[in-house]
Amino acid sequence: MRNNTYDVVIIGAGPVGENVADHIVQGGLSAAIVERELVGGECSYWACMPTKALLRSGSALRAARQVAGAREAVTGSLDAAAVLARRDSFASHWKDDGQVSWLDSAGITLVRGQGRISGEQTVEVTGADGAVISLTARHAVVVATGSGALLPDIAGLRESKPWTSREAAAAESVPARLVIIGGGVVATEMATAWSSLGSAVTVLALHGVLHLAEPFAGEHVVKSLEEAGASVRVGAEAASVERNADGTVRITLTDGEQLDADELLVAIGRTPNTQDIGLDAVGLKAGGWLTVDDTLRVIDEGGAPVGGGWLYAAGDVNRRALVTHQGKYQARAVGDVIVARAKGEPVEDAPWGRHVATADERAVPQVVFTDPEVASVGLTAAAADAAGLRTRVIDYNLAAISGSALHAEGYRGHARMVVDEDRRVIVGFTLVGPDVAELIHAATIAVVGEVPIDRLWHAVPAFPTVSEIWLRLLEAYGR
Predict the structure, then answer these.
(1) Helices 97-106 and 15-26, axial angle in degrees (round to 10)
(2) In this protein, which residues make up the domain named FAD/NAD(P)-binding (predicted)?
(3) Sheet with 238-243, side-by-side order of all strands
């Protein structure tokens, strides 16, 4: 066993862990990062990048077909092999040489293997050859191990070896028939991607489609999927799954109906990757989500920092916001607060302070890259009501904007603004429509900055753009 001492040890070298380490070394401390798979993590190889690459070709083709002149230039359908090859390039062909090179250039030490907390400020790393390295952290250990796909307890499901988000993102061929269990972000994005590539897709959405978003979001996405030839079965539930000898899959529903498919994708949620990282060594339950304080230190059931405050958790594992950009946002706060505490500098832990992730609770932006796209930030109308806010909800038909008609023929979309009437600031904003992803940051700034409605009147949108929706919503709200 070899011993190494660093200021900070990070378990998990995905985007979150990499950003923590970067802020640590930029702050003048040393950092070691532990990774058991590919440096770059889920986002780089099995989530954000490859999935959006799968989706982009279909999106570009649909956009061309919605504009006269461009439509006539399109003479064929998607080239599935070319789409998959492009996807492979964005996943770096599942090789992490570039990411490893970046760690080296940044002065961050990479230790490959399974990292486990073994005691006070110590992490043991078991390599592929069985050799064990013991790492000691002078100041902090950060858990940034992310999350994995959740598999429900359906008879025969695990034995049938279904696709999870990983297999769906990395598949080498297009299944003729694809059944998807789930109605959330992964389910709808993959339904969009694979149907555009030629799969006959059936979505089994027990709890509805995008049920955590504003209701109109799911309605638009369902309509578009069905127009693309997919079948969306809201309320349908799988009772059992069987992988046949010929490799196909049979799904039996609770009402007795049977569906046959070439592949089955399960996309019902996520579970934390904390099963084998040594949480029991610090009195925590293995496999559970980690609870953190405002500065992202792991706390116990009584609310006290574990071990006196040396253990932190950033990204999916703390369940605050399961999206990569929020994990990276947390990582910046974690890296900076560890440096501040190590150097005895003031900790800025008031709301919106440098060392806290306030936006996780108030202003999380998210884009669902379906057709049409769904972009949102902050609270839905229902969530704002549940929070006890006195709100006013303003809706507007996005297709009625001059810029929308120019953008695409037959443009369909919707916008909603949720206003806190007591403070006259926006607390929630949702857009549904083609290419609305690029509009959401303006709403994010308005929500984070708590820009008064009266001041927003002076933020004049350029004409003719889809951003004119801001003026129309304000006009509907009134002065």
Answers:
(1) 20
(2) 6-320
(3) 238-243, 249-253, 258-261
Per residue in 18-31, pLDDT (tens digit) is 999 999 999 999 99
Place of tokens 């049409």: 372
Q: What is the CA radius of gyration of the chain?
A: 24
pLDDT class for 39, splitting at 50, 70, 90? Answer: very high
Residue with tokens 């064929």: 76
Count CB neighbours of 167 within 10 A. Answer: 17
Q: Which pLDDT band, with edges at 50, 70 and 90, does 479 fall under?
A: confident
- pLDDT of 1 above 60: no
Contact assessment for residue 252 and residue 239, using Cβ atoms and an 8 Å cutoff:
yes
Residues in the chain: 479
Residue 268 DSSP one-character state: S
Q: What is the pLDDT of residues 356-398, one digit of tens each?
A: 999 998 999 999 999 999 999 999 999 999 999 999 999 999 9
Max distance between CA atoms of the chain, in angstroms, equals 70
CA 211, 254, 207: angle at the middle one, nearest 5?
5
Q: Does residue 462 carry a pLDDT above 70?
A: yes
> How many CB atoms are located within 10 Å of the residue 310 CB?
21
**Domains of the chain from N-terminus onward:** 2-45+91-148+271-359 (3.50.50.60), 158-268 (3.50.50.60), 372-477 (3.30.390.30)
Which residue shows structure tokens 């049938």? Answer: 160
| Other Cβ atoms within 10 Å of 106 Cβ, number | 14
Phi-psi region of 392 (alpha: psi -120 to 50; beta: other; left: phi over 0): beta
List the Cα angle 68/403/364 in 5-degree steps.
Answer: 120
Partners of 417 in beta bridges: 394, 429
Q: Please classify residue 251 by burial: count the beta carbons closer than 10 Å to its beta carbon, then call 0-12 exposed, 13-18 middle and 19+ buried.
A: buried
111-133 tens-digit pLDDT = 999 999 999 999 999 999 999 99
Neighbours of 224 (CB within 10 A): 20
Q: What pLDDT digit, counting tens, does each position of 170-224 carry?
A: 999 999 999 999 999 999 999 999 999 999 999 999 999 999 999 999 999 999 9
Which distant-in-sequence residues (6+ apart) come within 8 Å of 89 by Cβ?
53
d(CA 373, CA 224): 11
Angle 306-308-309 (CA atoms, 0-180°, nearest 5)? 75
